[in-house]
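Dissemination and training. As part of the outreach component of the grant, students in the summer workshop were shown how a complex can be specified as a set of sequence lines and then modelled as a single object. The example used during the hands-on session is reproduced here so that future cohorts can follow it. Participants entered these lines:
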Amino acid sequence: MKKSIAVIMILAICVLAAGCGRSNKAEKEQEAVQTIAAAEKIVVGFSQLGAESDWRSANSKSMKETFTSENGYELIFEDGQQKQANQIMAIRTFIQQEVDYIVLAPVTETGWDTVLQEAKDAGIPVIIVDRMVDVSDDSLFTCWVGSDFELEGKKAAEWLYQYTLKEKIASEEIHIVNIQGTIGASSQIGRTKGLADAVKANGWNLLAEVSGDYTQAKGREVMESFLKQYDNINVVYCENDNEALGAIEAIEAAGKTVGSDITGGEIMIISFDGVNESAINYVLEGKITCIAECNPLHGPRVQAIIEALEEGKTPDKFAYVDEEIFSANETVKDLTIGDTVYPVTILQPEDAK
Amino acid sequence: MNRIKDKFKNITDTNLLLLITVVVFFAMYIGAILFQGKGFLKPQTFFNILNANASLIILACGLSLVMITGGIDISVGGVTALVSMCCAVYLDYKGGNVFVSMLIALAIGLAFGIVQGFLVAYLDIQPFIVTLAGMFFARGMTTIVNTNPFNVANENFVALKETRITVPGFGSVNKLGNYVPAYIEIGVVVALLTVIILFCVLRWTKLGRSFYAVGGNSQSALMLGINVKRTKFLSHLICGLLAGIGGFVYFLHVGSGSASHASGMEMNAIASSIIGGTMLTGGVGNIIGTFFGVLSLSTIQNIVSSAGLDQAWWTGITIAAMLCLFLVIQSVVMARKQKTEK
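and obtained this result:
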């Protein structure tokens, strides 16, 4: 009896000691960091939405490599694990910690009004990266850095259109399935719209659209069910590379081949991002026919904005990143969207990673 | 000295586990203030934890009740998602009023509670299996109601969502030199009321004591003349109802409907209950403990991220370590109980 109470007490003390020990370590680290750069550092709170894809990891890495203590920054990184509630909590924590800048990569477009208002009231500028926020008042955020997702979708669709023209494939013979991204994300909305508009304009057959949540596992799962439902699929539009990798696994497991020879019975894969190494290699092997790039290196761009703000300048409200379109197939040389001509970057074997 | 010893002898398992939870929570929070600094000293940090976790508190209360009777309910997260989606669709597409949406939330929760309670108590099916089915059903239904996540723009609802109750005397001055009063959201009031009411019911009513009796030993409870089936049924019913209320509070906090809402929330609720001193084997548990369990869980998440351990899995690992620790403490307490019985 006495013994067990003693055991409990010891355990309780262990808990306390463990708790204090950790904090002590953290504090020491903090002190060490502080002595290096005498508290003059700019504190940036970054709420990243998650770590679902290679694009996202490259994006996080870019931010971490930019906002280092050597560059005069202290970065507080919060992973939202795909939950908006976590991201809202992270922003509130940043406000309480009185960071100098908040950088937000939102998981969805809507539902940010209240918390961004709180940041504004606290006098902390908010920079949105990647996906867009849909707020009633644009002054709630300072500026936005990211990609024109609809343009990416248009590029990919235009590539397919040009290809069918050159190869003389009738538009009604095109049977597309779309493995969508996380529903509600700007990238999904833009890329889906880019495809939907082209389908309407060109008279292609869009068989189905299902979300693969930007992951390889989900992409494979969705593709497997598509293959069971339809036997005439010849184009798979994957809204990111990870989904494309999953789709290729599923197609090959079903005994079919991927490639650009649609009339010869191959299934064409069109994808987005161009960050994943194996996806680039697959382009060279011809397994992925084309990839519309989505540039993840936002760190330096955000840094430029913060520097401009520090100098009292007003940066552009919306900053689009320049992006390319990759392919190893030389059929299509360039794309015309609106009045702009986008050359297709033909990948060479030395681009292999 | 003897008196202290006597006090220790008389302390019940429930109270001992509660004591440990409360002590650990305060130690953790004070530790965070002393060593972490960075905002923990501001009362609003604490209120933010409350605001963000009001729904989790309510769900965990319901779950504790079921766990006290020896059952489990893993459908609460799914019910939360379903409630948010149904209310969102109703308020947005139908332009309905907020009061009716509350009734919808309660009805959904109650329906889940009644069906699951009936299957568990009267058809004697394992609660884990029943509520697993409930979870899949709720998640599936959520997607059927609406696939796309969207925000609710209903004016009355937004007004209710934005309502803030200021807590006098806890405000702080921000960077711009403005005084910002500390606030809590309406959900927190609901959560606190739930905790208080459930605590009183469990402590002082015949029904409340019968939950413990059924969970502790259902055979003896039966011999004591307690209607075991009815008690189990009631525990699931109340848990379902609380899932409905918690779902609405969650909806009120996020203000949107989405199929991915509240994913994994049932697991957080179970973890909070265990940290709060509720035993999976039943018969032991305390609602106040559950309350502190939720707070401990989210405080540790806050500490982990402010300590610069940026990767999300660190939170998971810390929570796992914490759960392990509390399970060890529980088994020690059980061992103590068996010794005293001898």
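The radius of gyration of chain A is 24 Å. Students were then asked to discuss how this feature might be tested experimentally.
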